[in-house]
Amino acid sequence: MSSSLDTTEFVVRTIATTCVENEKYFGDLDSVVGDGDFGYSLARGFEQVLTQWDQFDRDDSGTFLLKVAMSITSRIGGTSGPIWGTAFLRAGTQLKGSENIAVGDVVTALRSSIEGIKKRGNSDVGDKTLLDALAPAVDALEQAHDAGESVADSVRAMATAARTAAEHTSTMQARRGRASYSGERSIGSADAGALAVAVLAERLAETWNSRQPV
Measured between alpha carbons, how far is 82 from 45 in angstroms, rounded to an integer? Predict the structure, then answer.
């Protein structure tokens, strides 16, 4: 049985490697109505995380996430750095000092991340941002867990909800970020950040049962 820290490391490494591998894809998505630097920014930030991997404090999962947040914000430029850094910072603060982390704790941490993103980006669900995939994904994770589903099945439910919600952003008009400058022209294409959330959730779901301590 993997420890909570092992699982946290698995999740972060999966996110980091997936962002690096999808640099071009995420950039292409962003270039439709944005400035096209989303993929580049994420890749550079998470490359930094992977480079510094062995240097992070690992007193507990929260401490580890706080160090990851610092690494991200020191490297990612534009709006992505503060947003993604805030997400990891809020989650890390919520989990700091916790040794045994249950799904309910993860849901609480992710909801804290969502609130942090809202404040940092002055945005909310409905503005056509990553929140439009992340919030429904967390809801689905909680609902599946509360219904007695296994962790693996709960993660799959999260991924399915993230994909559905991300695709739905194509019907929305962007109200935050560079895409908002295009007005109604932003309708018809899905939000790059929301799709990134879906891709990351799907990768976690695909690899969950094969995870090993890292």
Answer: 11
